[in-house]
Design brief:
With 421 residues, the protein is of the alpha+beta class. It is built from eleven helices and 18 strands.
Length: 421
Amino acid sequence: MNDRELGCAGGQFMDRGRMNQNGVVQPLLTDLYQITMAYAYWKSDKTDDTAVFDLFFRNNPFHGEFTIFAGLEECLKFLDSFHYSQSDIEYLKQTLPEGIEHEFFEYLGNLTARDVTLYAIDEGTVAFPRVPIIKIEGPLIIVQLLETTLLTLVNYASLMATNAARYRMVAGKHVKLLEFGLRRAQGPDGGLSASKYSYTGGFDGTSNVLAGKLFNIPVKGTHAHAYITSFSSIGELKTRLIKHKQTGILEDLLEHAIRHRALLSHLLDVSTEESSEGELAAMVSYAIAFPDGFMALVDTYDVKSRETEQANTEPKLINDIKSENSPPKPKPKSKTSPSSNGHQNGQGIGHVNGHKTNGHQNGVALHNGSRSPKDTDIQDTNPSTTTTKTTATATGTLKTTTVSNGTAYLPKYVEKSFRNP
């Protein structure tokens, strides 16, 4: 494999043209023991020692046979700008154990990555276990301080790129894959990383508008259930005419939709009375608004089926924002369940010098929406009988009505206006 070598001159990489660095990626984005080890090196007069750190992993994620290496660009940006600010130094003075000599903080304040050399395989390259994907060579103290940050930049990025590549392999070359995971990602930075590295791994676009701007990724989108549930009947359609793409003649799109619905009804042996006019009106209105490149959200519900008629008699649960005429979702199971969002939250694949990360450090694991050690049965601890109906309008206003022969807890809401004074 071809290694890429990049040197630093005056703390600035000579490979220019990269985008601005994520503000969260900074020297303090590390584990405390990296800094305490640096002090111990300094105290032991090892400031002139040099070292080579290899970044590698021991097992492929998802029980697969390969890994797509990603995150190199962010690593280069981090080395490019590596420097402890004055506020960083002041924070470390208050945080590190007592007795640390003042000269050490002066030493930290002057550190840059100008003496560091990075060797790496190209980003997007297939990588395998126990083969170094990045080598860092330079002063021992500095490369030690880089360890955790480089791991966190490579682990999640490679995990997302690998997962996206696996989806691409299954879908084939001619199927469009779009990443819509921002609302379920690990915060804003996790969302941006997932969008970026899904694209690296073979996806065709993202719903994340900021990722589109920052990383030049094609941005695509459909519509939410809130839009579907904002229509209740065909009579709400204010505009029905649309120009034919070839002839330019205005035609009634609703009439076309109804005609095709009848053909599908016959083909599927399903009565047209079982379809929702509100959903049809919403789809037609959105298609009229976006006649070119129209994409529809189709995971809606047949509200007149036997199963959903039975569900209508049960208490409604609220998930995403939907209006009162929204079809109910199937009754949830009684146990909690994780949301994978196309990848395994908290799973890491990186090691440096034999330190296994697996998505956590020092035995502390972070799980976003993942299962607790034991499944928890959902039980009613209130002996009184309480029926609560919770609904939401399309504008997001919540209404709660409670009928009880006991005592019910009513939440209190704080009103905050964001209008200009």
